[in-house]
Design brief:
This is Gfo/Idh/MocA family oxidoreductase. It holds the Pfam family GFO_IDH_MocA. GO terms for molecular function: nucleotide binding. The protein is α/β, with parallel strands linked by helices and about 400 residues long. It has 2 domains: about 150 residues, Rossmann fold, CATH 3.40.50.720; about 230 residues, 2-Layer Sandwich (Dihydrodipicolinate Reductase, domain 2), CATH 3.30.360.10. Helices cover about 35% and strands about 20% of the residues. It is built from 12 helices and 15 strands. The strands form 2 sheets. A 9-stranded mixed beta sheet has the order 14-13-12-11-7-10-9-8-15. Strand 9 and strand 10 form a beta hairpin. The longest helix is centred in the N-terminal third of the chain and has 17 residues.
Length: about 400
């Protein structure tokens, strides 16, 4: 049996992620034929079309019409994910979308409906999302342990991730960055879709969200750069989510507490403090007033020498096109879960009220549109910066 036909693929969006992550992948990928790349910046489209030996397009619909592609990578500013994906699905194209799936859940829902309608006509249609953090070895091991039930009933998850440092120069490097109209949000929209996806991937969705967001606290921006959230789950578990782009060197520490022990991930080390008995049973039945449970300290071995990040998600996307979407690292439809958490945190902060899930998408979109209309923020002229290694911005 011969090799499957090459996937005819196009890339739309030649910003930092498009040029520094996807172009190298596409240049080396043997299982695809790059039939077009697209960007409104004509010089950039021409430059990278030459790198990939393909055709440059300056309008995505022209690429849809003329290139003969059957799959597309969407790597454009967040608001544009929705109309491009919907048009791609309308044309029966496979889609790999960068995070976040959209800026707000109403747009995400439109994308998912368009996909489901297209999939009804073409059951083999594939919709993937770039949640490459799921492929990282320590995250895989966390998922394995939590899903195994070894910790018993989960009681608390506290994630302090303040290693997403960004300077003012970063925010000034794009005229769309850190604005309600251009980006749709700050750290929750840009850096933390991965963390929010991992949270729901590990623990499921909470029932209630309490959010506290600070707008431009440390940077000259009109969106959030420091956030604390308190999440309540129906099973009684509570979650804490603490993030900022203003701390250096910052902390990335995840504590997962279950009735049979505590799992701690920090500084590329995963430690399990395993209790000999159930903490919940011990609380009720111990004859002492102060004695802790005997626990055993174990550093969990993690194989770090495995493929990960963007190339793995891309390879699985291509494999899914050939063999079915069970191969995907993350289905595009899953993107709405982490986005729901981001929207709920911000809506709670805006209204100073608890948000119940499932949430009202209209309520958040109204808050967002109000901030766009009322914006008095004047963005400095975008500053050009020298090329930097984008891998430094991932896996914090």
């Amino acid at each position: 049996m011969g090799a499957p036909p090459k996937v005819k693929i196009g890339l739309v969006g030649l910003g930092a992620i498009g040029t520094r992550m996807y172009v190298p992948i596409l240049k080396e990928a043997e299982e695809v034929e790059v039939v077009g790349i697209c960007d409104i910046d004509r010089s950039k489209a021409d430059e990278y079309a030459a790198v990939l030996n393909t055709t440059a397009f300056y309008d995505v619909n022209e690429m849809f019409d003329q290139s003969g592609l059957n799959a597309i990578i969407i790597s454009v500013p967040h608001y544009d994910h929705t109309p491009i994906a919907i048009e791609a699905f309308r044309r029966g194209l496979h889609v790999l979308c960068e995070k976040p799936i959209a800026v707000h859940i109403n747009d995400a829902t439109k994308m998912i409906v368009a996909y489901e309608e297209a999939k009804a006509a073409n059951p083999s249609l594939v919709f993937g999302i770039m949640f490459q953090e799921r492929t990282l070895p320590f995250h895989r091991k966390l998922k394995d342990i939590v899903a195994s039930g070894e910790l018993g009933r989960l009681m608390r998850a506290t994630w302090i991730n303040t290693k997403w440092f960004r300077s003012q120069l970063y925010y000034d490097s794009g005229d769309w960055r850190a604005t309600w109209a251009g980006e749709g949000g700050g750290i929750l929209t840009n850096q933390c879709p991965h963390n929010l996806d991992l949270y729901q991937w590990l623990f499921g969705m909470p029932a209630q969200v309490h959010g506290f967001a600070h707008i431009g606290k440390y940077h000259n921006i009109e969106v959030e750069d420091e956030v604390t959230a308190y999440l309540e789950h129906e099973n009684g578990m509570v979650g804490h989510f603490i993030v900022t782009t203003a701390e250096s060197p910052g902390t990335n520490r995840l504590e997962i507490v279950g009735e049979y022990g505590t799992l701690v991930y920090e500084k590329d080390t995963l430690v399990l403090h395993k209790g000999r008995v159930s903490m919940i049973d011990h609380i009720q039945n111990t004859p002492t007033r102060f004695d802790n449970i005997e626990t055993w300290y174990t550093e969990i071995p993690v194989d770090r020498n495995v493929p990960s990040n963007h190339p793995v998600v891309f390879e699985q996307f291509i494999r899914a096109i050939h063999h079915g979407d069970a191969e995907l690292v993350a289905h595009g439809t899953e993107g709405i879960h982490g986005l729901t958490l981001a929207n709920a945190i911000m809506l709670s902060s805006f209204t100073r009220q608890t948000v119940e899930l499932p949430m009202d998408g209209n309520a958040y979109e109204a808050q967002l549109q109000e901030r766009i209309r009322g914006s008095k923020y004047v963005k400095k002229k975008a500053v050009s910066v020298e090329s930097e290694d984008m891998n430094a911005s991932f896996s914090k």
